[in-house]
UniProtKB/TrEMBL annotation, chains A, B:
Official protein name in the record: Aspartate-semialdehyde dehydrogenase
GO molecular function, one term: protein dimerization activity
Organism, scientific name: Paenibacillus abyssi
Positions annotated to bind NADP(+): 15-18, 43-44, 162-163, 325
Pfam families: Semialdhyde_dh, Semialdhyde_dhC
Top-rank taxon, per record: Bacteria
Active site, renumbered: 132 (acyl-thioester intermediate), 252 (proton acceptor)
HAMAP family to which the protein is assigned, alphabetical: ASADH (MF_02121)
Originating gene: asd
Keywords: Amino-acid biosynthesis, Diaminopimelate biosynthesis, Lysine biosynthesis, Methionine biosynthesis, NADP, Oxidoreductase, Threonine biosynthesis
Taxonomic lineage of the native organism: Bacteria, Bacillati, Bacillota, Bacilli, Bacillales
């Protein structure tokens, strides 16, 4: 590409699990960077990170950090985004925010490039990256929605521990070692770091991700409900979610029941998904091939399989959707948006 | 109890994971046993097992093993049941079969005591124990079905590895150790021992339990579909299942969407479940209390929680059902049936 404009880019939360993946992708994809600024909390400031052979020092993120910045990628938690994104916008930056801070703000587009990249242009400085479990589901459902319309979604998730951060991964590995050695397990972080009750994740599954809401659903479940409607641009879709943490390091799996508005053909569904951008169809029961969390790790795609007609409703389809929660579920989706802004490609 | 008749009992598959639990329960519950015969394959014959302080030697199961036997508990695989149950019946025994061999046979009652113990009397020598994942679900749904009627069930399971036998547990623990040590993992048994393709279960989830059927569902999924209708005595219930193996040792968890025929009250649902036999309600989101696989291990009850109104259908309820797959899901359900036959109690 000739005469490509180069951008001053800030990565907020550069030392975190998602920030690390964002930097890896910016480097691999040769993102048009003029100046790269790495920002973090005061605690992590001073960390050295190598980018394209150059050593960069992470600085503490402050309101003044964004002077001259044109694209800021935030993944340092909702509180940091709430405190700093407006300052970045005031300095003229476009913020791509990977937290829950602005997702449901009516002024903020909530973007999955394969689904609604056309909404990016409506931004007023901030573009929100959806929740990991939502992204992979809507990416897989959108091409089917375009063809048949969707009236209803019931999803049960099998979510990897990396979604709760690298300390949660450490905790799971430590607990697992303790369990194998026959020692006592003392849960410390999961299900929710800031809440008092802790549960074992090693050799267990925990039906709680994030805090409970008044309606009995967790915030993670309500994110899937609300974000799906907003991204699909259809408040009439009925969505129900059960979000469950499983002892997996990378890769969220989802058992999804979807009910279409119109009759569908299963072979057509397979063809549509096999041709859809960002989707890889892995659906070969005869050879025991279907998406697996371990196979998805490190890959940008959303993997779809176990496609079969519902046994109750003629309009119902069951499917199994898997993707790396740190990539398409976070860093890769954010970098896709940044690339669209920078060079107009999805 | 005075003048309790004492029974000659055979346990077929006495050295297996379920057989071991059956013997433990017969001992703990002081089952009225006159003579106890332990049977197995030729390979395990000769094994010594202590029952109530007495050492018994496991014998190879043959058609002649059942002479004088009045109650035979089978859990040695479908082929063994198919080969030997008719001989046991011919010798006058009532067989309680924990395999898939006779479950869908119209002549064979399929019994979950809390649901349909009244059907036991229809037996012609064989009573079938349902599949583990079905038992815990119908035990929890039956009291709600009695009150509101059920039109539809959509279930996604999180099934423990012990359901695939003790060799599968060994494999998971070995793989987990290999993964923690950073070594290569060479899957050997799961998802299905007799099929060629193997997948890693350590830090992974596998959306296949048992073989695929022509309709794209696995046999485990179709067991849940067919057995639920038969046990509930209602072929009109629409049932769809997605069965998934998770790296848990004991305790199946299930995310269940149920649609009632009539309007329901959530507080009534909780009251009905809290009063239902064999059910323990664990549903306190404010204190992060819900059923967990690790908590269910070693306990006979079915644990139910995460009760919440569906966000799509006013007749829909979402719930989380957990039970020890070797106890209520297998050994305990079989011993409950045996007790009903022996002493007329549930």
């Amino acid at each position: 590409m000739t005469n490509q404009k180069m951008f001053n880019v800030a990565v907020v939360g550069a030392t975190g699990a998602v920030g690390e993946q964002i930097l890896k992708l910016l480097e691999e994809r040769n993102f048009p960077i003029n100046q790269l600024k790495l920002l973090s909390s005061a605690r992590s400031a001073g960390t050295k990170i190598t980018f394209k052979g150059q050593e960069l020092i992470v600085e503490e993120a402050t309101p003044d950090s964004f002077k001259g910045i044109e694209i800021a990628l935030f993944s340092a938690g909702g509180d940091v985004s709430k405190a700093l994104a407006s300052h970045a916008v005031a300095h003229g930056a476009v913020c791509i925010d990977n937290t829950n801070a602005f997702r449901m703000d009516p002024e903020t587009p909530l973007i999955v490039p394969e689904v609604n990249i056309d909404k990016v242009s409506e931004h007023k400085g901030i573009i929100a990256n959806p929740n990991c479990s939502t992204i992979q589901m809507v990416a897989a459902l959108k091409p089917l929605s375009d063809r048949y319309g969707i009236s209803r979604i019931i999803v049960s998730t099998y979510q990897a521990v990396s979604g709760a951060g690298s300390r949660a991964i450490d905790e799971m590995l430590r607990q697992t070692k303790e369990a194998l050695d026959g020692n006592d397990i003392n849960p410390d972080i999961l299900p929710v770091g800031s809440l008092p009750v802790k549960h074992q994740i090693a050799f267990n599954v925990i039906p709680q991700i994030d805090k409970f809401q008044d309606n009995g659903y967790t915030l993670e479940e309500m994110k899937m409900v609300r974000e799906t409607k907003k991204i699909m641009g259809d408040e009439s879709i009925a969505v129900t979610a059960t979000c469950v943490r499983v002892p997996v390091v990378y890769g969220h799996s989802e058992s999804v029941y979807v009910e279409f508005k119109n009759e569908y053909d299963l072979e057509d569904v397979k063809r549509i998904l096999s041709e859809a951008p960002g989707i890889t169809l892995v659906d070969d029961p005869a050879n025991q091939q279907y998406p697996l969390a371990t196979d998805s790790a490190g890959k940008p795609d959303v993997f779809v399989g176990r496609l079969r007609r519902d046994l109750g409703s003629p309009l119902g389809l069951n499917m199994w959707i898997v993707s790396d929660n740190l990539l398409k579920g976070a860093a890769w989706n954010a970098v896709q948006i940044a690339e669209y802004i920078a060079i107009g490609q999805k």
